[in-house]
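Chapter review: from sequence to fold.
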Amino acid sequence: LGTTMVGTLDAAGDFLGDGEGWSEIRVVSGAVKGLAAVGVTRYRLSSLPPAVDSRLVRLNWGSEGPDGRLLFSDWLGDRLYQQDAEGNLTLLAGTGAGYFSPDGTPALEASLHNPSGVVMDAEGNVFFSESDAHRVRVIPRRDGTLFGRQVRAGRLYTLAGTGEPGFNGDGSGIERTLYNPRGMLLDEDGALIVVDAGNRLLRKLARDGHLATLVGGGTAPYLDPDMDPRHYGDTIGPVISQDRLGNVIFFNHATDFGTRIFFYCRTEGTYFGRPRRAGRLYALTGPRSATMGDGPGEHCQVSSLGGLLVAPDGDILISDRGGRLLRRLDVNGNLTTLAGVNLPWSGVTVPPVSLPAPATAQPLSLTLVRAAADGTLLLWDMASAWQLTPLRSE
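The token string follows.
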């Protein structure tokens, strides 16, 4: 089951040998008895101070700004925050009242109605989706014109959505309806790509204010291994990511066909071990019938995804099993568990571990993941933060 691993653990608990992943094995050790899912990776996990105080901020979405600062949306407090390199948290918008404020309201005096995705461009403009107000909005850095709208610095403005949930086609963003917009990212040309979750669409808001559909609008689940993205009719999860060539990665929520990770190819090439055509949609992980373990991604299952991102090296990092596992889909298309403990039934508990320790010894509940260029990963959950450091080059 899972991946065969041959080797030993040294005194620090690091794996010495060949292979990585997780398997189901028989164990009798302390509180853990019977069949348990365990694993090893070539990473060391160490504890960090929490990214934010979970008593004050409940993280809904996070992203990294162009200068390294972090942006957070708070789903419980209806606020937006930014955090500098020293860890100082600054309020960007929101009073904590959960309702819509009209355009032109100063950001610090405005109420927000369930902010979700949030990103910042190189000029310091902050874009976010206001999910329950069914709008995409901006906090400009300076006075001027953005996405076809005249704006003033530090105030809120709508870029897409009328406030009524629904779909009335593509066209001028401020005249088009959205339905529960969630995650977003900045496209290579400065446009916004937004998850229009209620409409089961990925949409692009161009710099001139035009809103167009990229993926979705069909009635079929993913069945064709080389699919026209306009025929896709399944759900789209709240989190999306993008590689350096502009290809978009997203996932669907659990359906009768299972949760899968999808690749919307916009630049033709070889990705994840296979050639891909521009303008087509591909599944990178397997259907519900696939194995629960590690191996070739197309033959492996993912489930209850909390998020994903494309690391600087092109690998996809996945918060899986409700955040209990951190997994990696590498550029060759292989799926590997990097951190976390996956237990096959609720009656098994894992005792606390002494850190630093093997990454797969620590129970996790991941909310956010951040990848550094040197391969180090920073992980957050509601109350803790972790650093995952490679033990050796792979």
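Two observations follow directly from the output. The mean pLDDT is 84. The first strand starts at residue 6 and ends at 9.
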